[in-house]
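Same chain as my last thread, 456 residues:
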Amino acid sequence: MPDQKKNILSTPMTRAEALRSMAAGVVAGAFGLSACSEPKRTEQVTIAGKDGRVSLKRNPRNGDEVSLLGFGCMRFPTVGGDRYTGRIDREPTREMLEYAYQRGVNYYDTAWMYHRGDSEGMVGEVLKQYPRDSFFLADKMPPETKTLEQAREIFATQLQRCGVEYFDYYLCHSISRQYVFQNLYLNQGVLEYLLEEKRRGRIRQLGFSFHGDLALFEWLLAQPVEWDFVQIQMNWLDWRDEKRIAEELYNRLAERKIPVIVMEPIRGGSLIDLPPQVEELLSANDPEMTAAEWALKFCASYPYVLSVLSGMTLMDHVVENCQTFTDFKPLSEEQIELLHQAADLYKMGRRIDCTDCLYCMPCPYGVDIAGILRVYNKCVADMTLPNPNLRHDEEYLRRRRIFLNRYRNNVKESARADHCVGCDECSPKCPQGLMIPHQMERIDKLVEELRRSVIE
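reply #2:
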């Protein structure tokens, strides 16, 4: 009879098979250490953190023991504005990073564009107090890079900003269109340059982050380069989504035994403030588990996930997420199926699929795209989005007042949707593929209709 552990780890599993292995508690194979021998390097192994620290996942490619919780460094607290207009609030950010490190978080993900370049320096400043071999630092080549010379300058600047001599994990950032990768990484020679930096030791693991379709994904995986890891958007809402295809992307990587870094596990926070019917469904299963815990555990329950990134803004986020990944146990088959039901319920609403990443900013005409979508989605989430077809209803008046007050109080007049001219500089930058001018037009029409509406 073939060895069960070997079969689970060496052959691609269907979703049902993976879930059955989780539910059966296969901790000695895909999720734990063997009781009788050291695990093979090809295995995906979750290791309990020492002294109550977060659990680790062993990278099958090089043996790195990476924290299941990764610190995404694009949502630090700010002062003097939001994440785009403000500057990093340094002291609480320092406290958050230090707390995470002390609790065993050792994977830190920053990028050239995060906080307009300040994220790299902030992360480097905090991490320099710790031994270099005690953490893994990830950075990225920005998608707006145009030439090989510029790529060389950016990479050198990133090392300097972060105060390190090498990056443990380095990514081609936000690949969403084939011609962009073709022009920059192949025609300009930037991919060969990054591979040379890997041979020199200044990049230890090379991968890419992805926001495209399945055809592009397969094309990237077919390139003559051995990708060490890939970063994908993965969460319970996107898992079976026809556009996000998270399940398909994950399975393609699992088939090739490529470690997965997860981004947007909570979908920019939208999987925390859940519609009431979704919240009730999950609470009936486990009233103690928070929405964030459901979301993070879903991602970490899959064996080829190496680390789950969370962009944390408050110390409360860091504390809760560290607790979630301490002595980590995967979700059961029944709980994951429950999340698929929750996704179906969630999608019955009219939410616009924005994750508040700010990649679309700045608008050349000053439109606060993210702020406008934030107001709209907040009203969808708490079921206060007004329906103009029900304008004679008392409930409509209540919802109308809430929506217009939120719009007025959170989006300044000069940055509202009516200032969108449809130039569409924003849509190609959107990782979610939103046709942003269309959404701005929709919301502007809704606002105008609500302002004109009266009881007859």
